[in-house]
Amino acid sequence: MNYPAGPIGVFDSGYGGLTIFQQLVKQLPQYDYIYLGDNARNPYGIRSYDVVYDFTLECVRHLFDMGCNLVILACNTASAKALRTIQQRDLPELNGSRRVLGVIRPTTEIIGSYSDSGHVGIFATQGTVNSESYPIEIQKFFPDVQIYQEACPMWVPLVENNEHNTSGAEYFIQQHVNYLLERAPLIDTILLACTHYPLLAHQIARFLPHYVQLISQGEIVARSLVSYLTKHPEMEARCTRYGTRKYYTTESTDDFDTKARIFLKGHVEAAHLQL
Ligand code: DGL
Predict the structure, then answer these.
(1) φ and ψ of 96, to 5 deg
(2) Residue 153 gets which letter from DSSP?
(3) Are the beta carbons of 148 and 119 closer than 8 angstroms?
(4) Which helix (H) or strand (E) holds 4?
(5) CA distance 33 to 24
(6) In whole angstroms, what is the distance from residue 23 CA to residue 74 CA?
(7) Domain spans, the chain
(8) Relative to the CA of 43, which ligand 1 atom is closest?
(9) Residue of the nearest CA to atom 8 in ligand 1?
């Protein structure tokens, strides 16, 4: 069954997906968007496969109920742990004509081309690192590239609690940068494979040698969506174009509005979604 055209849904465990959302809106401003942050159950990065899958599917269903035909999982942890099962098992049952896309595939298709040394570092949540999704997928596109992963469990809570510009944050940032570079001194490219981490980019860069470039996913994912919609006119026609943006959070809306402003640098007025 084909539902009427609707907004594009963007989902994350909290605020991090706003770094992707911002680039989607910049490159594709004509569409309507609904952003859903599951702040009440954040962080996802330390949770088991089953829990991340259940939470993600529940939120995807809510976005479908709000009329979205296309949902982007703007969360690496959800993309690593839930996307494939949702695409292969749940979508055919829920509605075969709706689509859910993630952030890992578009990133792995291109990340190897940024590196001259062929040594690429990945900062991500424990869940994303344990899933091995990045090394497995990158090997398919760039078999000669060496991948070195570093899980940074403290970084998401620092961002979610707006503590990311403090000296406490500096300690945890430097610690993980050092761990990674000690293991892999030939790295010349590091991917921020968690959508929260771009907010830490300036502090991370302070501890890196000048020749190491830091890559965030927002622009990459947005370019990939442009290309997806061009290649899938049937889905493009099912995305409404009034330029509206709506925000939902599973936590307090006051908190969301205040913190989302840090990400988007503009006024945000979220509605509460009761799970
Ligand atoms: N922002 C999410 C990601 O890209 C994870 C944050 C969390 O741990 O909930 O992986």
Answers:
(1) -65, -15
(2) T
(3) yes
(4) none
(5) 9
(6) 11
(7) 8-102+219-272, 106-218
(8) 9
(9) 45
Gap between the Cα atoms of 221 and 106, Å rounded:
6
Q: Does domain 106-218 have CATH number 3.40.50.1860?
A: yes
Query: Where do we find the tokens 């990340």?
Result: 111
Catalytic residues, which ones? 75, 194
According to CATH, what is the number of the domain 8-102+219-272?
A: 3.40.50.1860
CB of 44 closer than 6 angstroms to any ligand 1 atom: yes
Residue closest by Cα to atom 2 of ligand 1: 75
Structure token pair of residue 111:
């990340």
Domains 8-102+219-272 and 106-218 share a fold: yes
Assigned token pair, 249? 């959070």
Indicate the top mutation candidate among 47, 125, 152 to test ligand 1's pocket, ranked by most ligand atoms within 8 A of CB.
Answer: 125
Ordered per-residue pLDDT tens for the chain, 275 residues: 678 999 999 999 999 999 999 999 999 999 999 999 999 999 999 999 999 999 999 999 999 999 999 999 999 999 999 999 999 999 998 878 899 999 999 999 999 999 999 999 999 999 999 999 999 999 999 999 999 999 999 999 999 888 888 999 999 999 999 999 999 999 999 999 999 999 999 999 999 999 999 999 999 999 999 999 999 999 999 999 999 999 999 999 999 999 898 888 888 999 999 99
Using alpha carbons, select from 110, 4, 138, 24 the residue that is nearest to residue 64: 4
**Alpha carbon distance, N-terminus to C-terminus of the chain:** 26
Q: Extract long-range pairs of 179-187: CB within 8 Å, 24+ residues apart.
A: 179/150, 180/121, 180/123, 180/148, 180/150, 181/121, 181/208, 181/209, 183/148, 184/119, 184/121, 184/146, 184/148, 186/117, 186/118, 186/119, 186/146, 187/117, 187/119, 187/120, 187/121, 187/148, 187/212
